[in-house]
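Bug #77: duplicate submission created two jobs. Keeping one. Sequence:
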Amino acid sequence: MQEIVKSVGIDIGTSTTQLVFSRLVVENLAGSYAVPRVSIVQKEVVYRSNIYFTPLLSATEIDAEAVKKIVWEEYKAAGMTPHDLKTGAVIITGETARKQNANQVLEALSDLAGDFVVATAGPDLESVLSARGAGADRISEEERKTVANIDVGGGTSNIALYQKGILKGVSCLDIGGRLIQVKNGKISYIFSKIQALAKKHGIDIQVGQQADIPTLTRVCEFMADQLAQALFLKPQDAEHRGLYTNDGTSIPSEPPVQGVTFSGGVADYIYNPTTEDVFRYGDIGVLLGRAIRSHPAFGQIELYQAAETIRATVVGAGTHTTEVSGSTITYAADRLPIKNVPILKVSEEDEAVLETLSASIINQMPLYRPEGRTEQIAIAFTGRGRTSFADIQMLAEAVIKGAKEAIESPFPLVLVIENDIGKVLGNAIRVKLEHKKDVICIDGIRTLSGDYIDIGEPLANGHVVPVVIKTLIFNS
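Kept job's structure:
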């Protein structure tokens, strides 16, 4: 039996705010006497909103009422009501995520549909969302190559690196199309880092100056050069380190990048350069896109067409696949249900050695501190090849070592395993933690980084729990 699910994604970014409404066909693909396996068998965007400049009250505050008005107007234009929608996501990204009242805006919008994935996406998580929306992970897997996605927005450029479909690293730079703004033919705003970068190269630009196209083109060429350096396509200069957002770090230098996709508002002008009015949006976005496209370093690697450009993040705003867990699980019944828990996924490569499994968890934990403190997460890995008592004990030790920060948090330790070891692994961890920590360890579930998980109350006399995986709609 098929079920129609309507979904909405709302992305409030540095430059733009937009919505996407989708129609998903969900079907149980299992036989009559088999455990249900519900999957999305068809997906279609039924409405794409206009793209609006994100309304701000000041440099540090979002205009929440104006955002809500935009959202309601687009609901009406799409012929949708909150009652029609069963899933969706509100994501605040880029510089907007750091505005003073970002959480209040999320709360104001979260009642506009069913169980939203409501998250303020920090720059690292945003890199993953936009890359998967652009299809960089799929291209990397299908081509068996190392592919980076650069999501060039208004205030930041988010980078995610995939090798054969596996996420290898993320980073974010303060490079974007609205970091220099133009009004009435004059420069009206310059981001301090870009002004300093220009000055390092002998270009003195000031607010109030005429917006000289050749001069601003040169500045954009230096910005594009920094993106090439971020992919290690050329040596990193003395200025490069200071351009990472929030003093962040670069992607790993190995494996070398073989291909690239671009998403974000500037991407359309990378794939389709234009000679028309370059200041049409009151910024340097068109010039920056042209500079990136013509940079020699990007000509040395394969340029792949992104599945989505300006809508990559919003199209990745959320859908769901409902499953039931395996029947060999451990859980703390009074901690269920839990909803909208982000997945920290350990790759199979990192999982192969217990030391790297622990390190992978530790290294990914900063992705899940959107406001500087640890949130509820679910740690996921396959658990393949570890079935003996000794294997399980060593795996439990490795998980405890890597998940120390999560264990010290007020939330239960949630583990999501593909292999059929949930009960024994969960019990082993509980014993090693002297039963002082609530542990939820489910199996039979496959997830990806960037997914969210809902775990419901137990079914079938407590043998299984229902699971909803919220993943990116156009990731396959």
